[in-house]
Write a structure and sequence with these properties.
Length: 159
């Protein structure tokens, strides 16, 4: 199966495990800081709605029963961090101590609120939680998140 094209401008980074990955330019500072803190990431996107729309449009030559319009509209303007569940919970706990972000990470349904979801996986009659959490947050909060992670790193180096 062909791989979907990279939609956003991106930069190669070397993960803590030595693998080269392409990271959306606006997410690079966030991902670099998460890795410095010791948190793992499995995917990210600087605008999920925009990326989904572009991927959908690139697949127009193949018939599809999924047009994605509702998903795209819901996720327009939202960035994504996909992380192992435990790391996502740790991130939420760390950010909960930062005044600039504590309110938005706990406001699930407000326009500035964050959403964290974990997919249910059903295989061979067994349902379990997926290994990764999907964190969606307004893309205009990327700078505030970067600054908050700098605060976490500063506090860690001071101890």
């Amino acid at each position: 199966m062909d791989k979907d094209p990279l939609i956003h401008p991106h930069q190669p980074l070397i993960t803590p495990t030595g693998e080269e990955v392409s990271i959306d330019i606006r997410m690079v500072p966030v991902v670099e800081r998460l890795w410095k803190i010791g948190l793992r990431t499995t995917a990210c996107c600087q605008d999920v709605g925009e990326a989904t729309r572009a991927v959908r449009d690139s697949r127009r030559s193949a018939p599809s029963t999924y047009d994605g319009a509702g998903f795209i509209a819901y996720h327009d303007g939202y960035a994504l961090l996909k992380m192992p569940r435990e790391d996502a919970q740790t991130l939420a706990d760390l950010l909960g101590r930062i005044p600039a972000l504590s309110a938005v990470i706990s406001d699930r349904w407000g326009p500035e609120g964050w959403r964290m979801s974990v997919p249910l996986l059903h295989n061979d009659g067994v349902t379990q939680l997926g290994a990764d959490a999907w964190i969606h947050f307004p893309k205009d909060q990327i700078p505030a998140l970067t600054e908050a992670l700098d605060t976490v790193l500063s506090e860690a180096s001071a101890t």
